[in-house]
Amino acid sequence: MSFRVWAPGQQRVRVRVDGVDHEMAQRGEWWYSEVAGTDYSFLLGDGEPLPDPRSAWQPHGVHEPSRVYDHSAFAWTDQVWTGRALPGGVLYELHIGTFTEGGTFDSAIEKLDYLADLGLTFVEVMPVNSFDGTAGWGYDGVLWGAVHEPYGGPDGFKRFVDACHRRGLAVVLDVVYNHLGPSGAYLDRFGPYFAGHNDWGPGLNLDGEGSDEVRRYVIDNALGWLRDFHVDALRLDAVHALSDRRATHLLEELAVAVEALSAAVRRPLTLIAESDLNDPKLVTPREAHGYGLHAQWSDDLHHALHVALTGEKSGYYADFAAPGALARTLREVFFHAGTWSSFRGRTHGRPVDTRTVPGHRFLAYLQNHDQIGNRATGDRLSASVSPGRLACGAAIVLCSPYTPMIFMGEEWAASTPWQFFASFPDPALAEAVRTGRRREFARHGWGEAEVPDPIDPATVERSRLPWTERDEPGHREILELYRSLIALRAERAELADPRLDRFTVQAEGSTLVLHRGSLRLAVNLGPEPVTAPLDGEAAGILLSWGDATASERAATLPPKTFVLVDLR
């Protein structure tokens, strides 16, 4: 077995294989050794044994030895899988640990038929890389290439991806390159991996001395998920926190490498960014001097919808309470597009050229893990919004020209919260997380007793999906609505049409009308009945929600009602 590690500046490096130490030979900045064995760790100088920064398997946790893993040994059955392009797709975000009672890849596989029958095309999985402890969101990972063992390890994840492909579901994996977690982050002992900190932890050295290998570390990790685990897309967490002053940004370099791999494996490979920059350069093709990513999350769309449905106006929601904010954001993608942001205290963003940039490059959603889990109590929309308003929000998202994304359980208005949780074994770190969380929300007016203890196992249990309630009254109706909307989006080309220059939004008082070819989605978000401002006589009603009959809704919209009509 060949072992190697990048450790510039070291005078001596050994590899401990199955308990026996072996000297490594230096070649430039890399160290090598040929030794037979299974479990291994590296010793730098006279230091303690450390796991491999490029480990593919950590069966005993992030502080323990790595284990040799042979990617070629897995028996894939997805040879006929040709992948899925993002345009026209519908995503479903889930967290493996709380998606099912079992909290593993294998138990998640048991729910894939349900997801496929719902009409979804992409399953977006929150991070599965190794982090300290058993339960967590996954964003505190420290060994990016090793799959979290409590979920099922590398073979378990491959079984999950393989099972998704058998059902026609593409897999999006959430990856985190902007920081490392607070426990088990040993990279800086090997070389100049770190450069400064951001809000979440140490950031990577992407543009300083020694950064060539650090950038290679990121790109190799991304390509490994796509190539070795057959993943179809990566969701890149908080790319605005990547500090890179090079002429060629890491994101563009990654896009070039993924494009080359896509040609080699002969299937679409997609990069989706999460960014707070409101900069369309991320999803602008490289030929037009952009970074060449395929899509990005659009929080402005979420914020505008959230305020319109809930009336909440605190924090970053304040600007979205402006008259016409929802219609404007639906038309223009970014509400803050070189305009004043009161939350930031400055102008923010850049406009999207709706003549040339298609809507499928922006993900639209009512809820996601951040917008639920980073609320003090992790409350979902269904905790404060009526079924009628939930239905209106779902119709707007799924009838929009953007790529829709659903958060697990949203489709049946799950009653459980989704809260922030962690399980760091170190008592001091656990207490720091607990205290920090409570202080953060105390600044926003929450009492400490109101904020769930993130370290308490009960917080994880409260966040598990209650699958038995899908068929209960009040949940069953919402599920059927989502099923119908997803089916209509697949059947009617107008609803998936991403051309923003052909998309019109008409707003009159509390009424919103989305123009989708010959189809009109009319929504009443106000408390009183209104006359639907349709620009023609309805030839057919495709879908509706509310107390009036379908024919009545074509002309008059009761409160919390929508109607999708065909004017042909």
Give your account of this protein's structure:
The protein has three domains: 49 residues, Immunoglobulins (Immunoglobulin-like), CATH 2.60.40; 401 residues, TIM Barrel; 65 residues, Golgi alpha-mannosidase II (Immunoglobulin-like, Sandwich). It contains 16 helices and 28 strands. The chain has an eight-stranded parallel beta barrel with strand order 8-9-12-15-16-17-20-21. It is globular and about 80 Å long. The relative contact order is 0.09. The mean pLDDT is 95.
Uncertain residue ranges: none
- Overall SS class: alpha/beta
Number of helices, where a helix is a run of at least 4 consecutive DSSP H or I residues: 16
Assign the CATH architecture of the largest domain.
Alpha-Beta Barrel
Enzyme class: hydrolase
Pathway: Glycan biosynthesis; trehalose biosynthesis
GO molecular function, one term: 4-alpha-D-(1->4)-alpha-D-glucanotrehalose trehalohydrolase activity
Main location: cytoplasm
Question: Concise description?
Answer:
The chain is α/β, with parallel strands linked by helices and 568 residues long.
Produce the secondary structure layout.
Elements: E1 2-6, E2 13-17, E3 20-23, E4 25-27, E5 30-34, E6 39-44, E7 66-67, E8 91-94, H1 96-99, H2 105-109, H3 112-118, E9 122-125, E10 129-130, E11 143-147, H4 153-166, E12 170-175, H5 187-190, E13 194-197, E14 202-204, H6 211-228, E15 233-236, H7 250-265, E16 270-273, E17 295-297, H8 299-310, H9 325-332, E18 339-341, E19 346-348, E20 362-364, H10 369-373, H11 387-398, E21 403-407, H12 427-442, H13 457-462, H14 476-491, H15 493-496, E22 504-508, E23 511-516, E24 519-524, E25 530-531, E26 540-545, H16 550-553, E27 556-557, E28 561-566
Parallel strand pairs: 8-9, 8-21, 9-12, 12-15, 15-16, 16-17, 17-20, 20-21
Antiparallel strand pairs: 1-5, 2-3, 2-6, 4-5, 6-7, 10-11, 13-14, 18-19, 22-23, 23-24, 24-28, 25-27, 26-28
Helix pairs in contact: 6-7, 8-9, 11-14
